[in-house]
């Protein structure tokens, strides 16, 4: 008997079995991890091909079908998120081979892979889920694996940040679960179709409010971002790249889905979400300007970018969310690729120079040029310069906002952009000035094969901007959910 | 005519809220844990009154039993680490009264809003009951909760077991080879208790697992009760985890997830999708999954109680980095 293989099942079960294998065989963990990532990426490409050919696809697990059972469903947006996760994940995994090779990192090497593969299981599960209780379980899987990765480096600061992250994460998940309870009370079912069918009521509003606050806490939108900078800055480099580039996107994705199926009851709420995004852009920008450590600066830039995504969500377009989610989705993809590249590059710079104090970066006798170049490329995409994907995302945000006449939102986006130029320049100028080093500078020291993965990511972040039109067409496949059924 | 149980329910609800407030306001950590355990037991009772015996069992076994043990163990460790006999909760920076009042008012408003939303919702929503009842004959088991957990929504249950696996992997990973707090002195009564209790716990745990097919019970409840065996063995030092046991332990952690996922995949084919058990074998497969998951849950919970990967201790004395 040969089991019928479905790419959606594979995208969830391959990482799960990989995690089990990597946990059982610690010595072969890295090999198992890389093979699993490669196979998962393959499965996701297969799925993408199917979705391209025939639109959204559904697997009713157990053959029951929603609402009794749970359906897996892949459409353009979910496949785009899966592609982002597995492709970025694969490159981060390649980079992890090098950055975890130290003699004192045996435990990190051993545990990185099972935790990361469990994390991948959870994220892929989120992107394929059509059921809010299932989403709750998946965000719990993600939360525990992500906390494990946060504390992987074993430093006191990382442990403290990890504990804080765990509290925030569990609180967010509990709020989400409470919202799920309200939905069940009102609608009597938990699948997305049930959400669409439900009549607006006080219970549904309460459910939406609870779930949104829970998700905002998990995705770290200002002012619920308090846990993020320390957690992302103190993790080991590949873990930071995964946490910042991919993990916060899972909650963002759920947010996008929920608000598609459960319309926000009030225009004021949408403005409020945009205002929180503006707060994140300004506050995060200020903190990034003040940060003393490179990785902390990069972590604050994540807070800024999350804020930007919410501005895009709230205010990019005349017809509201039906249009603005696309700008948000583009920014999610752009940030995922560029931030992973940037965290890996920051980790490489820290490894080569030996510290990541921004004010002393230009005094180092070593010049890890490729890593610095990667950092600069990633910064280009995060600032939003053409032709990067970040530019396209920001452009569609501003175009939409301008068309709808939201000039003050355009102004905030511009201020955020200038601030990001300023804080990234603090780092980039330190890369360029070597006049403070008396000894000869090792220009070509610190090139390594390890730079290949982050460089590829950064180049992708720039290059994907040229493919914006097909990407946009792709994420619209099967949107919205109701049309496909 | 008022049902006398209504008075009982009211008292129960009041007691639960009072215990929650007491647990949050008491300063002594030990008293806090004791209050929390009582709170959990009364919550379990409340679940029974809400006609959810499965949840009640899980609450009693996991939410109260295992969690209480974990909290007490942590307290013991905290006392050892800080060198104090009685650990009290004294926040480093006391919260200003104004902030506290503002928080209380804010939380009160939210609670009020949720209460209004709750009261405005339909009294008895449609729910899954009719759907589940209709599909039960095709599920292979007789107890609706087991049908939902192991068949209709088996995917959720698999991922819950994965959550537990992720937890134990994360806990093992934190191990830094530092010396442990010495285990507390246990009297002779304890040894005798263990001898008497162990066989009974094994029987109860296995029974809970077995009965899950037609009555309240199942893998999570049975696993939690069986985990008590592990707790007793660890506490009495009848079993001391050794570094060379790690392979077996890892195997036990992943057993439930692995078998569950393999069964879910292997039943697919011939027109069936993943998780679609053939009806003739449904009961056997569900029992197999539940059995393996029970073992994993029991071992994982016991390992979480132990709280660390058994590695060879470092030679040097404690240093925290």
The coarse silhouette of chain A is globular
Round the mean pLDDT of chain A to the nearest integer and report it.
88
SSE order of chain B, one letter for each helix or strand: HHHHHHHHHHH
What series of H and E elements makes up the topology of chain A?
Answer: HHEEHHHHHHHHHHHHHHHHH
What's the helical proportion of residues of chain B?
A: 55-70%
Report the count of strand segments of chain B. 0
What integer value in Å does the Rg of chain B equal? 23 Å
Low-confidence segments of chain A, given as residue ranges, are: none
- Classify the oligomer: heterodimer
Instruction: Give the percentage of residues in beta strands of chain A.
Output: under 5%
The end-to-end span of chain A amounts to 31 Å
Percent helix of chain A: over 70%
Architecture overview:
Chain A has 485 residues and is an all-alpha fold. Chain A has 19 helices and two strands. Chain A has helices at 7-24, 29-54, 76-99, 106-128, 132-150, 156-187, 192-197, 202-219, 228-234, 237-261, 267-290, 294-315, 321-353, 369-383, 389-403, 407-432, 452-463, 468-475, 481-484; strands at 57-60, 71-74. Chain A has a two-stranded antiparallel ribbon with strand order 1-2. The longest helix of chain A has 33 residues, at 321-353. Chain B has 321 residues and is mainly alpha-helical. Chain B folds into two domains: 1-90; 129-321, no CATH class. Chain B has helices at residues 4-25, 29-49, 53-82, 97-120, 129-135, 144-152, 154-174, 188-211, 219-235, 246-266, 279-306. The chains are: A mainly alpha (485), B mainly alpha (321).
